[in-house]
Amino acid sequence: TLSESKNIWKMTAGGFEVSSDGGEHFNAGITAEGMAAVNALSAIGISFDWAEGGTLTLGGKDNKNGVLKILDEDKNEVGHIDKTGVHFNNGTFSGDLSGSRISNGNGTFVVDENGKCKMKDAVVTGTIIGKNGYSLEYYDTLQKPNVRHEYVFAETYVDELGEPYLNIKTPDGTPVIQCGENHSRNISEVFAPYYRQITPMFSYGIYAEHATIKSLHSYYTPVILSDIRGTYVTMDVRRSGAFISVYGIYHVLEHSAGTDIVFSIKQHSYEESFLPTENQVNAVGYQGKRAFVFVLTAGGTLTIRNTSELDLNASEQQEIHFRFDFFRFTS
C-alpha cells in the first residue's frame, strides 16, 4: 500500500531524486543542470564528450561481439578492437609488449612471443640493433612436402679482444661478407687479407653485372727462394683483385751461359695465390750484356736461364731485376 511503500520521489527547484529506503538515502536523480545519478543505464544510443569510470565492457550475450572503434575528426577509422584483436591503420606503440605476438595479418611481418622477428618481402629502413644471430628462413624444395629451415644469416659479436664484428652467411654457414676491426692485432701482410677488415671483405669473390671501383686495395706478400749454392731470389708480390704483379731480384755470383737454375715454390695457400692459373708467364732481366729469362709456372717453379753466350762469374753478388704482370682468375 502507499503507506507501506518506502519509495519516495522528491522534486525541488534544483531537480528531482528518488529513494528506495524511505528517504534515508537517495540513490538516483537528475539536477536542473542536467547531472544524472543512476546505478545502471540501459540505452539504444549515447552521445557524450567525455566519460570517466572504472571498467568498460563491450559485447557478450545478446550484444554479441563488442567492437571499439577510434575515428579521426573526419570520421575516418584510425583503428578498432574486436574479437580478432587490435587493428590500427597508423600510430605509435610505446612501452613494453611482453608475452605478445605481433603480426601485420598477411604473414610478411611477425614478431613472436619470444621476440623473434620474421619478415618476408620487407624493406627495412633506419637502424637495426641486434644481439647474436639474425635469422632467415628458406624452403627446401627438393623435399616433398617442402621443408622450411631457419639459418643465421647475420652474426654480430664481440670477440675476445672486445672488438665488434659482423658476418653475413649463406644457408650452409659460410661467411660471404665479413667486416670488423683489427686495431688490437699485429697482423702480418701475408695473412692480413684473411682477417676481418674495417671495410667489408667478400670471402668468396664478387660477381657483378656492372661495377664502378673508386679505389682498389693491394696486398703485398714477401717471398724468398734459395738453393744450396747461395743463389737466391727475393720477390714482393702485389695482389689487386685478379691482377698480380711480382717484383723480383735475382741475387747471384755465378751462372753459366745457356744453363737453367730452377727454384721450387712451396705450395702454401698464400704462395699459390700468386702463381698463374694456366701455363706460365715470362720476364726478362739484364746484367751487362747478359740476358736472363725468368719463367714462373702454374706448377710452382721459377726457372732462370742465362740466354747469353757469356758466363756470369762475379766477385760480388749481382742483382738482376725482373717483373711479372698477369691476371689470375679462379673458378
Topology:
Layout: E1 8-12, E2 15-19, E3 28-31, E4 36-37, E5 68-71, E6 77-82, E7 85-88, E8 102-103, E9 109-111, E10 117-119, E11 134-140, E12 147-158, E13 164-169, E14 175-180, E15 201-202, E16 219-226, E17 232-240, E18 243-255, E19 260-264, H1 269-272, E20 280-287, E21 290-297, E22 301-306, E23 312-327
Antiparallel strand pairs: 1-2, 2-3, 3-4, 5-6, 6-7, 8-9, 9-10, 11-12, 12-13, 13-14, 14-15, 16-17, 17-18, 18-23, 19-22, 20-21, 21-22
Folded structure, characterized:
This protein is 1% helix and 44% strand. The protein has a five-stranded antiparallel β-sheet, with no helix packed on it. A four-stranded antiparallel β-sheet has the order 1-2-3-4, with no helix packed on it. The chain has a four-stranded antiparallel β-sheet with strand order 16-17-18-23, with no helix packed on it. It is an all-beta fold and 331 residues long.
